[in-house]
Amino acid sequence: MKRIVRQLFWGALSLGALYSCANIGHPDGGPKDVTPPRFLSSNPKPEALNNTKKKIVLLFDEFIKIENASEKVVVSPPQLLQPEIKASGKKISIDLLDSLKSNTTYTIDFSDAILDNNEGNPLGNFSYSFSTGNKIDTLQVSGTVLEASNLEPVKGILVGLHSDLNDSAFVKLPFCRLSRTDSRGHFVIKGIAPGKYHIYALLDADQNFAFNQKNEEIAFDDSLIIPTHEPSIRMDTSWVDSVTYDTVYQRPVTRYMPDNILLRAFKEDVHSQYLVKSERLTPNKFTFYFSDRADTLPTLKGLNFDEKNAFIIESNSLNDTINYWIKDSLLYKKDTLSMSLSYLYTDTLNKLVPRTDTLNLRAKQKMINEDKVKDDSHKGKKKKKGDKELQTLFLPVNVHAPSSMDIYDYITLNFGEPVAMYDSTAIHLSEKVDSLWKPVPFQFERDSVNHRIFNLFYNWAPKGEYEFTVDSMAFHGYYGTFTDKIKQDFKVRGEDEYFSLHFNISGVDTTAFMELLSTQDKVVRRREVKKGVADFYFLNPGKYAARLIVDRNNNGVWDTGDYEKKLQPETVYYFPRILEYKALWDITQPWNVKERAADKQKPEELKKQKADDKKNKKKGSNSRTYGTNR
Fold it and tell me: Which of 14-28, 398-412, 425-439 has the lowest mean pLDDT?
């Protein structure tokens, strides 16, 4: 029996061993691999001189892969023919398809595109260089690209140098040295020869490394860039794990300058004027949509009708959206309106020239059947069998009079159709005084831009109770409808529900305005800066951010730049932290707008472009540059 048991035991043990050998995989437990790939060698060798080979092979100590090579890997000087970059096993091969330039340093900057195949640990800031001449250029410049309008880091934009200092070089020639920004908007241009340069950023739509399309995002620096270097000391840290460090030690390094270049990226205003579309959704109204703002309205001539005094014309402040409300029912009942429209059009030479289009506008919907419009005597009656359905139609209106009215707010009536006339005596506002409603005087006026909007202004008493009423038939529309009776009761919020915030601004000596922002970077309030002060009253308790816009032309809006005119976009500053205040507080906040560098101003909570998660504490010690003296 003992012999049988021993045979069964050794048989089971052998089967277990065979099963273990047949299943290949990672053993459970053990430390996680956090080490990035290590560069071993290359052909040609790093910093090779007088190189004529267009194929480069890089060897690493483990299996590797390349992430987003077309976005992250940059070859400098730029290649008009995209190089072929492939990872296979432990090797990376690069085939340069352009002809090699003589006496030129070539740099292939991989950024953090090289990762190990298992855990995806990135080899940070890896680059490789060789020269077709007898020396390697080793100078570098670095900095940050931010969106000019909101200081967001710009990821993936090209940043390049021109040794040709003519302004036309950026428009006609590819860069001589090149880099690309990372997720923080940071860039490093390597392999630069001594000299003087202009620096630019370009979101290159057609991949020719030149600014030849007006819709491309760009940035430029007004100053010359003169690369230099000096010896320096860097403090490095030896880490035990992700939170515990072992040793801090000093390492001699070379500091390349300038290393704090700031480029504010923008798109130029492209004024290309043309008719985007025309539509006639209902018989009594048609609309023209233009691509850009205009100083004047287009000229309309009816081909199958008389256009004189035929319309109520509504346009927005830019004149790029224009509504034509047709007054005469005989006209809007026409199935098709034929007309010629004359306006200024941007031609292929970017010049405004006269243009006339012939349009035939057919209504997509029908007007509501007039036999459905009955007087108020039918309202509320039950429909009898065989009777025609009766419906009272009123002039549509949206009323803004919230039940909890802000102390600074006002009542608004927004009509869905043009108002032909109204009776001001039929509009009433009453205030509750000792449980009685007392009529009070108020200001009522038509909006200066949109004539279908009417506003009622009154100096509300804090915590006061009000009743707003409009008698029926007070407003008469152009198409035979009247308003129904309107009644809104509301209570005004008390002053003890708000706080006040006052900014004392320093660092700017020109016209400017401030914007108070939500934590989603949306504008909540806007105030002009007067004598270095911006006051915000009646703010709801909560969290806010703030930014200041230098308004050099004093037009109350942020203006973009223009490369041809050498005009930078208007400067934007962000208050560097989120503010949070409670009701009844009255705060004065000092702010020197130039106290922090622009790339350190915008609070992280507001940024939509977040830094890549893979950039961790250890990555800095793993960053290496091969083929460049450090």
Answer: 14-28
Which amino acid, 108?
I
Spatial distance between the Cα atoms of 148 and 500, rounded to a whole number of angstroms: 29
For residue 143, CA distances in Å to 35, 110, 160, 590 come to 28, 18, 12, 28
Q: Same domain, yes or no, for 155 and 114?
A: yes
Question: In which band, very low, low, confident or very high, does the pLDDT at 621 lie, cut at 50, 70 and 90?
Answer: very low
Q: Could you report the per-residue pLDDT of 97-119, keeping only the tens digit for each?
A: 999 999 999 999 998 899 998 88
- Residue 531 contacts by C-beta under 8 Å, 6 or more apart in sequence? none
Residue 603 near residue 577, CB atoms below 8 Å? yes
Q: Are residues 174 and 218 in the same domain?
A: yes
Q: Which of 362, 388, 412 is the last residue of a domain?
A: 362
Please state, rounded to an integer, the average pLDDT across all residues of the chain: 89
pLDDT digits (tens, 9 = 90+) for 412-424: 999 999 999 999 9
Sorted by sequence, the CB contacts under 8 Å of residue 171 that are 6+ apart come out as 210, 211, 212
Spatial CB neighbours of 52, under 8 Å, sequence gap ≥ 6: 100, 132
Whole-angstrom Cα distance, residue 56 to residue 130?
10
Q: Are 623 and 124 in contact (CB under 8 A)?
A: yes
Beta partners for 398?
414
Query: What confidence tens digit (pLDDT) does each residue in 253-275 have?
Result: 899 999 999 999 999 998 889 99
- Provide the 8-state DSSP code for 371: G
Clarify whether residues 95 and 183 are in a common domain.
yes
CA distance 10 to 150: 73
Question: How far apart (Å, rounded) are the C-alpha atoms in residues 57 and 92?
Answer: 6
